[in-house]
Design a protein that fits this description.
The protein is α+β, with helices and mostly antiparallel strands. The protein contains three helices and four strands, in the order αβββαβα. The protein has helices spanning 2-27, 86-91, 99-107; strands at residues 57-60, 65-67, 82-83, 95-96. The chain has a four-stranded mixed β-sheet with strand order 3-1-2-4.
Length: 111
C-alpha cells in the first residue's frame, strides 16, 4: 500500500513541477505592464457624487415575463429572479410585461 501512495505522490510532484516549469517559460519573456499615470482630476472624497440607483428587473418563470418598476404588477412578482437590465432579462428568454401591447401598437389596425 505504501508503494502505491509513493507512486501517486511522485506522479503529483512531477505534474506540479512540469506545470510550474511551463508557467515559468511562458511568463519569463514578458515585460511588466506599465503603471498608468495618475488621473488628471481625482474626485474629492468629501464631495458627494450622485450614483444612480440600480434598477431591479423582476421576472416570473411561470409567465416568462419581466417587470420593470413602472409595471403595475411589479410589487406582486416575487423577487427571487432578478436582473440588472431589461437586456439581460431578454437574453435569458423573458419578454417585457407589456410586449403584447407594444406589438399591437406597431402592427397597427388590420383591415
Amino acid at each position: 500500500m505504501m508503494w502505491l501512495a509513493g507512486q501517486v505522490f511522485l506522479l503529483c510532484l512531477v505534474s506540479f513541477l512540469a506545470g510550474a516549469g511551463i508557467m515559468f517559460l511562458a511568463v519569463r519573456g514578458r515585460k511588466p505592464e506599465p503603471v498608468p499615470a495618475e488621473p488628471e482630476s481625482t474626485p474629492d472624497p468629501d464631495e458627494e457624487t450622485e450614483v444612480p440607483e440600480p434598477v431591479v428587473i423582476r421576472a416570473s418563470k411561470k409567465s416568462m415575463r419581466y417587470h420593470t418598476p413602472d409595471s403595475p404588477h411589479y410589487d406582486r412578482v416575487s423577487s427571487s429572479l432578478t436582473f440588472i437590465s431589461a437586456a439581460d432579462a431578454e437574453l435569458a428568454g423573458f419578454q417585457a410585461w407589456d410586449a403584447d401591447k407594444a406589438t399591437a401598437r406597431t402592427a397597427g389596425p388590420t383591415t
